[in-house]
Amino acid sequence: MARGRCVPFVLGVPALDSFPVRTWARLTARQWRRNPRNLMLPDDGAGYRPLREAIAEYAYTARGVRCTADQVIVTAGAIQGIALAARLLLDRGDQVWMEEPGFSPARAAFTAVGAAVLPVPVDQEGLDVTFGLGVAPKARMAFVTPSFQAPMGTIMSLARRLALLDWAASAGSWVIEDDYNGEFRYDGRPLSSMQGLEHPGAGQVIYLGTFSKTIFPALRLGYIVVPPGYGDAFSRARLSMDRHSPVAEQAVLADFIQEGHFARHVRAMRRLYQERQERFVALARRELGDSMIVEPAPSGMRLLGWLPPGVSDVRVADLAASRGIDVLPLSRLCLSRPPRNALLLGYVPFSHSETERGLRTLAQCLRSSEA
Amino acid sequence: MARGRCVPFVLGVPALDSFPVRTWARLTARQWRRNPRNLMLPDDGAGYRPLREAIAEYAYTARGVRCTADQVIVTAGAIQGIALAARLLLDRGDQVWMEEPGFSPARAAFTAVGAAVLPVPVDQEGLDVTFGLGVAPKARMAFVTPSFQAPMGTIMSLARRLALLDWAASAGSWVIEDDYNGEFRYDGRPLSSMQGLEHPGAGQVIYLGTFSKTIFPALRLGYIVVPPGYGDAFSRARLSMDRHSPVAEQAVLADFIQEGHFARHVRAMRRLYQERQERFVALARRELGDSMIVEPAPSGMRLLGWLPPGVSDVRVADLAASRGIDVLPLSRLCLSRPPRNALLLGYVPFSHSETERGLRTLAQCLRSSEA
Description:
homodimer; alpha/beta; 4-stranded antiparallel β-sheet; about 45% helix; globular
């Protein structure tokens, strides 16, 4: 995404106007005042120790992830975490189950190390484990987004999670759990992570978290939780890729978490995003009626807008782009043809009037693409 | 390197006590006050535009690099720049000339994409181009550190630079110019970059710079300069690896360069490092005499300590490590056996008394390893 582009309905941008910028700036100034030498010295590949400790505690409390700080590797975001896991855990030719439709940067990371990526369909319960067992029972790895399937938004059922963990344990395979949007659940308490569901000692799950959605995208900080004993290998791999993340921001983030600002911000955003989703759905119904069906989602920062049969999502997105609206066609994320065309729409950072204007423009694009 | 370790004579740490921390903190606070939204939004893979502009200007003025901001890609440091170039410009099986001895993380980056790395010896004039022509005239790429050969510290002669550029132009091959320590030349004006020597329009050189040595290592910012027309491909490749570097630090660094703090700091460090090198050489002669020969170097932040024949650099380094002294054995950086054993010694961040104590400990280690 190009700089400065926060046009409706771009994906992946949180409600930046509601971020406690002054607190962040204050913690930053305090770190530079108290601790400058620490912020300048090289670190090891696993990241700044106090941040790793804060993450271990947070991930347990918020997401049921069981780990010590030694198992936490700070990354430059989810994509780098996937690349690290691919590099360390896969050999050329290894098979990987990949959600279809799915998160294309993950697919690219597996392909980059020479893995054979097998699309496994996603239904209402998430990844179709039985399908995977049928086509590639000995796959070395499975990639899933159980909290909010990217891009369909379905939440993986408990039965499927257990089936996937069972397969991984018996096949000796890895499960990459990208806990995308795990923080933003609107209809009750979220399911805890698969990492926390795993049989203690099994060690098949690599858990991925990111602060791009909960803090802000330009921070470029995320983390992976690896099984006991794997921390050093991941740390060395990170060193060989790009050393480590900048220390100053890790130190500020550690303070932000430890002093309770992070938990407070996530709670506030959960309420705000739920309100904004309700508003978006209501406005979309009013402005677009049946020409784009938007249903509420129990989680996440984006919604799907289903298009009438025969309307090309790519064509609508191109038209919208020419009028300053950024929507992602669902078909771009599918290797095979999607069941029905749809647009992915980010809704959380936009005001009432931005949303309204954006939806009106989109309605016009839909009318001209039907004509 | 593990956190907090700045023991004598660790490599790669600048004189942090002389860094203008207050200026940096002030510029950081100002960015967060004036510009918060900009620091939080996602960017494109090439990096923050004002920083790319500041780098293009600086690289021309200081290093004779000819480019526009479109050719500048901000990286998380030199290693990531090498990895990007390897990923985009090499195919599996391609041959790469690599300095021997050489910068092992570069070797690892080429190997990671399946390239065949060929060691090409380094002599007093730098990379032996004639040797390279003999063993692999059709290599796809050559990696060089012409300003300060890593680890030998020799400066590549003009004749060799021109020979390498001639070969690259006629073979259609790439030259990766890692301008390691290009800023720190003590015996006069440094040679300008090979990128600037290249025939205009040739476009065979990828130039790499880093701020790890000139600002501080934990910043994790560097850059590559690519030929015209290659910016978008490198930007997309960076997006697919880890998106982009954090924006806040890029914005602060842009201000730091544009407002003249950077040029002033580099000038001050050049004087300081020259003094510290003279002090180090004098103290080493006094404390170690003939048991470790340290000769002054015209450039860089480290020196070579040559050991008597038959003394193992690895053994001395192990002994030193057990006594809290960090030195790197030269033989660790060589695929083949080095002509003579030596230690690499960082000298710039240490006080007179730290240097003195460190050298005394090292003298004891040498005596016990000779015994």
